[in-house]
């Protein structure tokens, strides 16, 4: 009787051990280091949107990096942010996020461009938001790729990168190791897509719900709404007149409140960012756009 009772107890114990060992183990989450590039004049939501998304991703370590140490002005000097690392101290990231903003200075910063190019081999994925594609193009990462950018910057990107296919009317483009997004809020969609790739669709949906980003349609890559038409008017101007930089205060009503090169809205016209052509003043969002305009003014005017 005792032997029988002992056998039953031993059998129950072995069954419990076997049952416990047969249970599936939770999947191991691979840690991911995500670096977000900052620079003077960076657009706030371009970097803050992806930062918010990735901050909620399991196993993600998110940090910011810039070419210089100390507080940095951004978003038309409305906000000051201190980056976590410089280019010399930042850990090798698995994912690099390059936002857009005021691009001419950072595109001319060879230290930033070389760092982006140098760290490409060690990265799992590179993601750009808005005109951050300009910087990736400057680093030579877009040749032969299909990308997108802010709807108002697609034409200029095509001119800058003739070997790149630029798609319009899409929130993001997944080209494998490169994910590019349209403007500003589209960085959230692109980041959610990256989460879905790395952690699954359910994880991305949970983050979208947590952020109350409830209009996200993963399959379409869209938030509710339709692509907006460009707020442009067509002008027929003489093509042979000389372009001159403005040396005096521009007229109160310029030819257009839209940059004729990148088609972005020009909030404030200053003498540093205007050019005179065919009897009218034109305003630009950056010196880079102004330089492009001065090379072929007639072509840009006709395109508008």
From TrEMBL:
InterPro entries: Class_I_gatase-like (IPR029062), DJ-1/PfpI (IPR002818), Ferritin-like_SF (IPR009078), INH-QAR (IPR052158), RNR-like (IPR012348), YHS_dom (IPR007029). The keyword Signal applies. Residues 258-302 form the YHS domain. It comes from the Bacteria. Residues 235-254 are annotated as: Disordered. Pfam families: DJ-1_PfpI, YHS. Keywords: Signal. Residues 1-24 form the signal peptide. GO terms for biological process: regulation of DNA-templated transcription. Residues 33-195 form the DJ-1/PfpI domain. GO terms for molecular function: oxidoreductase activity. This is YHS domain-containing protein. It comes from Spirosoma oryzae.
